[in-house]
Specification:
β1, α2 and β2 form a beta-alpha-beta unit. Strands 1, 2, 3, 4, 5, 6, 7, 8, 9 and 10 form a 10-stranded mixed sheet that branches. By secondary structure, the protein is of the alpha/beta class. It is about 40% helix and about 20% strand. The protein has 11 helices and 10 strands. The structure holds aspartic acid (ASP). Aspartic acid binds next to α2, α6, α7 and β7.
């Protein structure tokens, strides 16, 4: 077995093959951003093999996630997904995969705060004014999200539940198309990761109201935004984490090789700089180890399941 293991490790990845990272959301969105930066950072530690992105978007990431669960377990098809791995099990009556048993866990990539943003024509210029506007426009507010189980959906659900205000939710295949419609004024509000919103906030293309983290952020363009919790939305706190996965049954040697490459990427100064510029924090704790990643996801499933069920009225 040791000899076979050594051979498999040498053989993977083969130079004439391509490693595909499936992104279960639309191109140009936050998950896509993280995946593209990660693909670039993993290329070198994987011996220069080409690493490409496949956007298999739709249904709050369940379509792309199912695609990877069914893929050949050879290390050439991977999944980058976020907190949806922990929220989908509570939101879908039937999923074509089982999060705890159908994947090899390769490690957590980062933690990303979210921002509550609005269309540029919205009259409110700060969170206080937004709260008044929401109060006055109950029943007429449109909130975009990336499908049941997406991070933006979770944030929107928690927000409506905290306010006890029902909004009309509009599902997209990712938050990239949602942000386009927000800028165009077709929807009013969106809660989206900073990896997608920072540049739009900096360019003043959208209105930014608050961050979803427990503390304010240090990113220069975001540091003046209040937290939702300090703005009176009691106990509100969501942070989005991303993890890398392979189909169940991928050989242990290949999993180890991919995990090594991921850990090298997470230490790449270029990757760290790019992610930090977008408000993300690159993982440097135990969750970069497969076993800890798996434990963490299970803990998140246990944490979010009851919260989602309690907020059920707003879950679409
Ligand atoms: N991460 C986004 C969300 O869950 C979707 C996306 O990446 O486009 O809202």
């Amino acid at each position: 077995a040791a000899v076979f293991g050594a051979q498999a490790q040498q053989a993977f990845p083969s130079k004439d093959k391509t490693v595909t990272i499936v992104v279960p959301f639309a191109a140009g969105g936050p998950t896509d951003r993280v995946a593209r930066d990660l693909a670039e950072a993993m290329r070198k530690p994987l011996g220069g093999v080409s690493v490409v992105i496949d956007n298999a978007a739709g249904a709050g990431s369940s379509i792309g996630t199912a695609k990877v669960a069914r893929a050949a377990p050879d290390g050439y098809t991977l999944l980058l997904n976020h907190i949806a791995m922990a929220t989908m099990p509570a939101l879908y009556r039937k999923l074509p995969f089982n999060v705890p048993t159908d994947f090899e866990y390769l490690g957590i990539v980062n933690d990303v705060p979210m921002t509550l943003i609005g269309r540029p024509s919205l009259p409110a210029n700060n969170y206080k004014e937004l709260a008044t506007w929401i109060e006055q426009n109950k029943g007429k507010i449109n909130l975009g999200h990336a499908g049941l189980g997406a991070a933006s959906h979770l944030c929107g659900l928690l927000y409506q539940n905290a306010l006890k205000v029902e909004m009309t939710t509009v599902a997209y295949k990712g938050t990239a198309p949602a942000i386009t419609d927000l800028i165009g004024g077709q929807i009013d509000l969106l809660c989206d990761q900073t990896t997608n919103t920072t540049s739009q906030i900096e360019a003043k293309k959208v209105k930014a109201y608050a961050v979803t983290t427990a503390k304010r952020l240090s990113t220069p363009s975001l540091k003046d935004l209040p937290t939702l919790a300090e703005s009176g939305v009691k106990d509100f706190q969501v942070t989005i984490w991303h993890g890398l996965y392979a189909p169940k049954g991928t050989p242990a040697e290949v999993v180890a090789r991919l995990n090594e490459a991921l850990k090298a990427a997470l230490k790449d100064p270029d990757f760290i700089r790019k992610q930090e510029g977008l408000g993300a924090v690159v993982a440097s704790d135990q969750r970069v180890e497969p076993a800890e990643h798996k434990k963490f996801v299970q803990a998140e499933i246990n944490k979010w399941g009851p919260i989602i069920k309690a907020a059920g009225t707003y879950a679409d």
